[in-house]
C-alpha cells in the first residue's frame, strides 16, 4: 500500500492518519522490532498506527529534544547500525502499516543515496523524511528517490514563507510534515496554536496530505490535531511510554491515540487521485 492509499483510505473514514515514531534499535534491535509491531497492532480492539516513522539514530540530532536524543544515543550504544534498519522496515510492512524512514542527511550520504534508496525500497519502505535537507539542496536525493519510487517528505514550519511552502510542496510527495512549533521535538501540555494556521497556509499551495508533529502526547491532542490535519504525528510520547511501560504500554498508547483520531470525525479533504 502506498502513502497515497493510506491517506485516501483514512480520508474516506473521515479521520486523520495516525503516524507514530520511534528510533530504530531502541533500546535494542530485537526490542525495537517488537515495539514497532505493538505500535501497529494496538490493543486488539482499536488498531494503532497507520504509518510508522522509523528514525535512524544519529550522533548530532540537532532537531531532536532530550527524550528522542537519549533514546537514539541508547540505540547507538547498544550497537545499532544503519544496515539493520532495513529489517525493521520490513517488520513494519509485514505488520500492516506503511513504513517511512526519518533521518538526518549524513547517514544517507555516507551509505550512498542511490544504495540507500535501493535497499529501502527492497525492504518495503515507502519514503524518507529528511528534517535537515531542504529541496534546494536535495537534487542527489530527489534523483535516487524517484528512481526507486520513494516518497520525498520535507518539513514546513511556522516561519516558512509562502514561497518556501510552494517550493517544498512542489518537491515533495507522500505528505508534508508540518512542524507545529519552532524548536526541538518533545511532548507538550497543549498543541501549538500555530499548527492550525500552518496547515491552512500550506493547503493553499498543495493537495498533498499534511501531517502535524511536535507536541502530541494524548488522545485529546490527537483528536484536536486530527480535526484540521490529514495526519497526527507522535514521537516523544511513544519513547516515554516505552520507558515506563514497555511493549504492552506502547500497544495500549497506540490504541488510545487511534481512538483519539476516530473520536471526532474531521472534515478531512478528499485525497486527490
TrEMBL record:
Q: What is its EC number?
A: 4.2.1.20
Q: Which UniProt keywords apply?
A: Amino-acid biosynthesis, Aromatic amino acid biosynthesis, Lyase, Tryptophan biosynthesis
Annotated signal sequence range: none
List the catalytic residues.
Answer: 53, 64
Question: Which PROSITE patterns has this protein been placed in?
Answer: TRP_SYNTHASE_ALPHA
| Record has Lyase as a keyword | yes
User: Cellular component terms, GO, for this chain's entry?
Assistant: cytosol
Q: Which InterPro entries match?
A: Aldolase_TIM, RibuloseP-bd_barrel, Trp_synthase_alpha_AS, Trp_synthase_suA
Look at the named UniProt entry and state the broad enzyme category this protein falls under: lyase
User: What catalytic activity does the UniProt entry give for this protein?
Assistant: (1S,2R)-1-C-(indol-3-yl)glycerol 3-phosphate + L-serine = D-glyceraldehyde 3-phosphate + L-tryptophan + H2O
Tell me the GO molecular function terms.
Answer: tryptophan synthase activity
Q: Does the keyword Lyase feature in the UniProt annotation? A: yes
Involved pathway(s)? Amino-acid biosynthesis; L-tryptophan biosynthesis; L-tryptophan from chorismate: step 5/5
Gene3D superfamilies given in the database record: Aldolase class I
Instruction: Describe its partners and assembly state.
Output: Tetramer of two alpha and two beta chains.
Q: Which HAMAP family match?
A: Trp_synth_alpha (MF_00131)
Family in the record: Belongs to the TrpA family.
Tell me, in a sentence or two, what this protein's role is.
The alpha subunit is responsible for the aldol cleavage of indoleglycerol phosphate to indole and glyceraldehyde 3-phosphate.
The record ties this protein, via NCBIfam families, to: trpA (TIGR00262)
The protein here is known as: Tryptophan synthase alpha chain
Origin organism is: Actinopolyspora xinjiangensis
> Gene symbol?
trpA
